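=== RUN LOG ===
request id: a7f3
mode: sequence -> structure
chains: 1
length: 324
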Amino acid sequence: MRPVLATITLALALLATPTAHSDVDETRATLRDRMVRLINRDREAYGLPPVQLDLASSAVGDAYCERQIRNGTTGHFTIDGLAPYMRYSFAGGNDGVSENAAAWSADYAFNERALYEMLGRSQDAMMGEMPPNDGHKKTILDPYATHVGVGLAWEKGEFRLVQEFIRRYVDFTRPVPRHATLGDEVKMTGRAFDGVRLEAITVHHEPAPEAMTAQAASAIDTYSLPDLRKEYLPRPRSTMGRSAFGRARRRQEIDPRGEFITANDGGFTFEVPFTDGPGVYTIVVWVSLGESRKAIAASNISIRVEPFVQSSRAERGATNSLPR
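=== RESULT ===
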């Protein structure tokens, strides 16, 4: 995942009156549709296919924007210390995700006209970026994005907007837990869409996030997956043997480069390794499309892993307390 650059933080000088609370949901829906149209207008100008609105990631974005206003933060982090890919994953998201964020502040409440104005000016500001400081623009013009979530929140003179660009190329057929302990067996199973080829899986590790102040959260202007990672390549299912206990195992002749099982229909099974101790492990499934072998990140599944807790003597039973 490439870093996403600083949040756009702006002030707006429009006369405004509050939007009625009963109209908030309707206003949010129309603003969301407007944002998707603006995004697809700009993608079309660069010869890129449109993205579809994703309601699940939009809901995650709404909650995040509300927390930003409540906590007085801007950017990609709030005071819980969660990176955007963790926030998306812990809410149940599986796919690849990249986030843009914008914030507006004024000394009055916003009416609907002001909200539409801020929406358009945010998009124009991101598309107006120039290299090398054009991270928002690159995210909007990701040629491999398939969907986008649009998160929105406003209260009095604060407005927050996030765009969650999604790469959806894999159907994950088995729920992956978002919490585990060292020693747990966690398997990921899925199937690549038609025309999509599995290339690799990487597992990234980092310490568990820590709470921070609002000032510290707002000061973080980039994010990326951690550099500490392990890479795994596919092996065909036909090369698997069976252990005496009925479990799949490698035969001696298996190419040692292969690390997870694949099938002819694009299905795969991957046992997630927790080899770097407690923390957060983020699994990225890499795919390629058609004849191209360019690797595309198609997942950001984060798992918070706790230390292994040894069971107490009472929990282990009375095996050592037989009568003598």
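=== NOTES ===
The longest strand covers residues 196-206.
The chain is about 25% helix and 30% strand.
=== END ===
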